[in-house]
Specification:
The protein is mostly helical. It has one domain. The protein is built from 6 helices and no strands. Helix 1 crosses helix 2 and helix 1 runs antiparallel to helix 3.
Amino acid sequence: MAPAPAPPAPPAIPTLYRFVFLYIEPLSILTGAVYAHFLQSTYLALTHAASAPGGAVPISTSIVMTQLANLYLGLGFLEAAVLRTTSDLKVWRVFLTGLLLADFGHLYSVLPVGTHIYWSYWRWNAIDWGNVPFVYFLALTRVCMLLGVGFKKEGVRLKSM
């Protein structure tokens, strides 16, 4: 009896997606964690100068900022670690779908600044650049990956989740 043919190999994750999700995004998350924990006054002033504390950061705010930094570290580690351990497209798709939902939440979170935050690029400061266009970029990159843009389609259809 002849051996059964091997199943087709899953499509390789394109280099752009690997670069963005294994290196660029985890490094940007680490940067946010450093600012949220070690540079709290700067982080708050860049987020919304008018409501940032003028002097010392209140203890309750400091605790929340450190918790935010901790969440950033956890998220960055999980993204870098989980996606490095597998090339299983199903795992990547589920993980990136969760992050895409978080992108929408992140964009919504800055709405109290005013709707201008989404399009007034000439008014953006460093944190705005990270909160708006960089999140747009990540969300668009996730959508492209989820749609299979850039994958070699050698007769293999990408499986849905």
